Structures are given as C-alpha cells and as structure tokens.
Amino acid sequence: MLALAVAHDAETFQRMRDPLADRGIRAEHVSVREAVTDLSAPPFDPTDFDVGFVFPGRLMEGGVVDALLAVPWVNDRTAVLRSRNKAGTLARLAAAGVPVPETVYVSNPADEDDVRAAFAGFDGPVVVKPNSTTRGVGVAKVHDADSLAGVTDYLDLIHDYRATGDKSYLVQEYLPNATDYRVMVLDGEVVGAVRREAPGGWKHNVHRGADATGVDLPDELRELAVDAADALGVDWLGVDVLVSGDCAVVNETNARPTIDDETKYQAGFYDRLAALVERTAEQ
C-alpha cells in the first residue's frame, strides 16, 4: 500500500484518510509544528513514506520535514511559495492573460509620497493586504490617504516586532458588492466550489466566520480557475474568484487549501486525488 505523509492540518488529514485508504493509500499525519523534535528520533518513521501532501506552511519546519522524509510532494515548496506570494501570483496570472484586480506592490518601507501617489491612482476605497499572510490576516479597506499612512504605520510596527522575511504589502482596487468564490482545481479540472458570505461584512473568509455554500459554477468561472492553476503550475489549488457586476477576477490562490466535507466536491474527487498522489510518488 502506498504511504502518504500528510503535512497539513489534522482536520484535512482526518477527512482524507479513510477515502484514500479505500483507494489503496495509507495516509499518516506528520508534523514538527509547535513541538520539540529530536532529529535523531522524530515522532514518525521517515523511511515509512513514499510521497508527501503538501509542503508545510511554516517553511523552516517544512525544510526539516522534507529533509527527514526525502519524498516527492503533491504541491512542493516551490508551489507553496509561488501561491503564497500574492504579488508574484498576480503578476504571473496577468502575464498569462488571467484577469486580476488592479494592484500596486509596495516593498516596505517605501517613500510616503510614492505610496500616496499610488493611492491617488485608484478611485477608492482600496484594499491593503500584507503580501504573504493567509486567512485574511491584516487585510483592511482604506478610504483616504491619511488612513493608508496609518495602516502602513501599523505594518511597520508588526514587521519590527516579528521576524519576517516579507515586509511588503499590496494596495488593490476594491470591488464593491463582490461575490466571493473559492474554486478547487485538481490536476487541471474544477472538482468543487463554494460561495463564501459574511453577513454584514466585506471580507468573506471562512476562518473569520464566513459561511461557505457549495455551488455549481458557470463555465466561464470554471475556465478562469483552471487557467489560473495552469499559469501557476500547481496541481492542487484553491482559486479565489471575485465577481462584481460584469467583472470577474482571480484575487488570490492557496496551494495549501483545506480539504472540506466530501459533499462540497464533485463525484470522483477522491479518485482524482488518489491518482495525483500515485503519479507524484512515481517522480
């Protein structure tokens, strides 16, 4: 039986374990996160695995797990980094002809006059978001240049306090009354999608309390998500699509998406996931 090291959250592991076992893949949770690890005696047998899913989100911890396991990954370090870099993702997508929000990348600290000039180029309000955070952390809607300066001041304080390799952020157009979709693309095909809604709010992040409801997407949005995954070269990708009026854009992507309830996916989802795991193990 093929052995899969799942370096994702425990919830994702629990959801995928039995369906993959039914398809001849033994999944086991592996992690060194928030733990003391003896490198000569890790909490899992490094020789017991054939393939990994997916490269850990904390990259230094991921480097340790990767060195211990020495296996190919469904979504390796390159894929995770490529997706996490919001500005890099948007630049790649735009170059491939995938529509994205109008965005300015700011490498902090930047000249304040230049930041204000960038803000002036938008109709306003704008969305300000750290380049590398996940789960909607640090995302703010800003209506005027003075408020933008205040937000960047807070970002300066955070960056001074925490050891981070990325002090940059994005200034991005705000799409009013946008419908927010998370589209799951697996090996070049859409396998499920949800509409995310936060009553009374504009940030539709499930980790911040938004509801996610399974939906059937129109063909044009399915094609948009598949094009995004193809442009990034990522086999298992969550693609965040915003639709506002006649405008549909890819806002962000996630190469470490949580696996949701099976009811949120199309028939055959785990068959396709098992096939991807098997193909990756052969690399």
- Helix and strand run: EHEEHEHHEHEEHEEEEHEEH
Q: How many angstroms does the end-to-end distance come to?
A: 17 Å
Shape: globular
Average pLDDT for all residues: 91
Rg measurement, Å:
20 Å
Q: Number of folding domains?
A: 3
- Structural class, please? alpha+beta
- Helix run count: 8
CATH superfamily of the largest domain: ATP-grasp fold, B domain
Could you tell me the number of beta strands?
A: 13
Low-confidence parts, pLDDT < 50 over ≥5 residues?
Answer: none
The CATH level-2 architecture of the largest domain is identified as 2-Layer Sandwich
Jot down its keywords.
single chain; 283 residues; alpha+beta; Rossmann fold; Dna Ligase, domain 1; D-amino Acid Aminotransferase, Chain A, domain 1; 3 domains; five-stranded antiparallel beta sheet; four-stranded parallel beta sheet; 8 helices; 33% helix; 25% strand; metal ion binding; nucleotide-binding; ATP-grasp domain-containing protein
Describe this structure in words.
One of its GO terms (cellular component) is cytoplasm. Residues 90-282 form the ATP-grasp domain. The structure is a single chain. The protein is of the alpha+beta class. It has 3 domains: 2-74 and 276-281, Rossmann fold (3-Layer(aba) Sandwich), CATH 3.40.50; 102-173, ATP-grasp fold, A domain (Dna Ligase, domain 1, 2-Layer Sandwich); 176-255, ATP-grasp fold, B domain (D-amino Acid Aminotransferase, Chain A, domain 1), CATH 3.30.470. Helices cover 33% and strands 25% of the residues. It has 8 helices and 13 strands. The protein has helices at residues 10-21, 59-69, 77-84, 86-95, 112-120, 145-161, 219-232, 269-281; strands spanning 2-6, 25-29, 51-53, 73-74, 103-106, 126-130, 140-142, 169-173, 179-186, 189-197, 211-214, 236-244, 247-254. A hairpin with a 2-residue loop joins strand 9 (179-186) and strand 10. It is globular and about 60 Å long.
